[in-house]
Design goal:
The structure is a homodimer. With about 220 residues, chain A is α+β, with helices and mostly antiparallel strands. In chain A, about 40% of the residues lie in helices and about 25% in strands. Chain A has seven helices and eleven strands. A four-stranded antiparallel sheet of chain A has the order 1-8-3-6. Chain A has a four-stranded antiparallel sheet with strand order 2-7-4-5. In chain A, a hairpin with a 5-residue loop joins β4 and β5. The first copy, chain A, is globular. The interface between A and B is large, with 43 and 43 residues. The structure holds a DNA duplex (30 and 30 nucleotides).
DNA sequence: CGACAGTTTGAACAATCTCAAGCCGCGTGG
DNA sequence: CCACGCGGCTTGAGATTGTTCAAACTGTCG
């Protein structure tokens, strides 16, 4: 009885095997702004997000920050080596399923369907990461922001949520760190999109896509 | 009897199971500049690189290119959905082990150790991709080039090859597309490193790291 | 009501790109 | 064996995108 069962990695586990999973799982809550994974610390747990939004980020010594991804309900977090290579912070109140890393290999042995699913997800994430590298290396500010809005919108649709007014649970700074820009440039790009009629901003964190074809053209496909 | 056995995914397959692998494998050769994976085409095969160097790249409609990674002996290529999300081109003459995608799932069922290994590699690649996103989003040109040289050098060392004179099998343009810069900026950065005594350039494609600590400082860790 | 975090806007600045030209090394053909 | 041509590399000067620094605005929460 998990809200995100249908989207999460558990979706491939047969009902009669669920108890295997349940035995090693702890449900954890995190308030907004809680940092529940710290870059560099021993990777003790894997997480499956059942509710809320999370940002995953990395820091450079001088304080520069890169947001490596935003995660939502159903997403899996924690594929890593011995230590976390990233930090994770709750953007909203968040509910998490937590698996101890030690027991995880046994778990995979017992639930081969989940292992296969995990490989599939890792592969999807890799694909998304490659797309993001292309964005960061070769797209202009406008193209980046347009791509970002469209991909958030289609993610919502994939989850069966409304794809059009897009809620942004993250700040402009988070978006900037995700897109390799500054807060100011992100903000300017939003207002320029608004002035050109591509979007409407009811509030700063609620974007209505009023001209998807135009945005799609700006984003150069995807 | 494969040159790259020790580094490749096959390293975890027991000797008595090797015939299972051998049955579905074809050895393929590619000459330099051969594009043997085409973005957007049905993903028919997985590859394990046994000799040579490969660049993996993506194109934007207007011709802009992003190099998503360079692969060397022992590396695995092809985790993807139904269609390849990238192209792959041989930088040098290359030898490949090719697995048909259709038989791959059966293969994983029979060789669980290989599936586990694959998950580990996907996880490592993901980590590298995140590092690269940080580089592309938040590092300066000098930092990017320094990071690039150091990571090539340490990859060589990990493979038991000499880590110091680093051979660059790719062109300046390839490096630029990998680092989100232009050919000119890459070239200028190389000569500036040379003038500052951090490297020596015997030829354009052979770099001697004469001041690793300095480079490491320029790269901001890693 | 006041404070504060987040957002927006403006103007000057700088890193990197663009365009253009010259250089180098290498393979080819005379 | 040497001249030629070509691709890739380097260098220069000017243009541009996005950054930086600074200030005003908004709305949310005590």
């Amino acid at each position: 009885m998990c809200e995100a069962r249908a989207f999460s990695i558990c979706s491939v586990v047969k009902n009669e095997d669920l108890h295997v999973l349940a035995r090693s799982t702890t449900v954890v809550e995190a308030a907004g702004c809680d940092v529940f994974v710290h870059e560099g610390e021993p990777a003790g747990y894997f997480f499956s997000i059942t509710a809320g939004a999370v940002k995953v980020f990395k820091l450079l010594p001088n304080g520069r920050r890169g947001v490596v991804g935003f995660l939502f309900e159903g997403d899996f977090l924690g594929l890593a080596g011995e230590r976390y290579a990233f930090s994770a912070e709750a953007l909203t109140p968040v509910r998490l399923c937590r698996f101890p890393r030690r027991r995880f290999c046994d778990l995979l042995d017992r639930l081969p369907a989940m292992e296969r699913e995990l490989l599939g997800r890792a592969s999807d994430e890799l694909k998304a990461a490659q797309e993001q590298m292309l964005l960061l290396g070769r797209k202009s500010a406008k193209e980046r922001v347009a791509s970002f809005l469209l991909s958030l919108s289609s993610r919502n649709e994939r989850l069966g949520l409304p794809g059009n007014p897009v809620r942004l649970p993250m700040t402009r700074t988070d978006i900037a760190d995700y897109l390799g820009l500054t807060t100011e440039t992100v903000s300017r790009t939003f207002t320029s999109f608004r002035n050109e009629g591509h979007i409407r901003l009811a509030e700063a964190s609620l974007v209505q896509l009023t001209d998807r074809p135009g945005l799609r053209a700006l984003a150069i496909a995807h």
